[in-house]
Specification:
This protein is an alpha+beta fold. It is built from 7 helices and 7 strands; from the N terminus they run βββαβαααβααββα. The protein is 36% helix and 19% strand. The strands form 2 sheets. Strands 3-1-2-4 form a 4-stranded mixed beta sheet. Helix 4 packs antiparallel against helix 5 and helix 4 runs parallel beside helix 6. It is elongated and about 50 Å long. It starts with a strand and ends in a 5-residue tail after the last helix. 23% of the residues are buried.
Amino acid sequence: MARYIQRIALLGKERWIGWEIDGVGTEIPGLILTDDLPQDDRRVAAVKEFSPLAFETCLEMNTTGLANRASAMLLDEDVEFRLDALQVGIERLRGRGQTDVPRALFTSMLGDDTQLNHPCVRQRLDAWERAGAVEFVGNDDCWLRVLRPLAKVPSQLASSNWQLATSI
């Protein structure tokens, strides 16, 4: 469980709130990891309580800003980070017995439909498909079906199935 703080402004006053997020411990846009701060940091001291926050909710929170800039292309590093987080989210869904992954999970995490054709996205999806971990379905309610645990397999080539993802 990692602790983060977030600055918010209410009625012209700055406030700091705290989150405990399970399954994370890396940099998250808009949040500050308290592990990286000195113990006497006044921002951390201003937080009265660290509220638990589900990992999936954290994913949705951090895509809001990107969704507002729908046409902005992400850097490869940003896409890779989001894909790693998405993989954790998909594994959690699979762990709860849900194998159908909706298209909305991908577009909310990546920002919009245009990001689905980013080369890093196509390579990761293709690697999962070649490893037999997923099946491309292409429907809004089941865009991807998880067949077994996702492996982080290095990919060499992108599949044409994934390149057509935004036209479906």
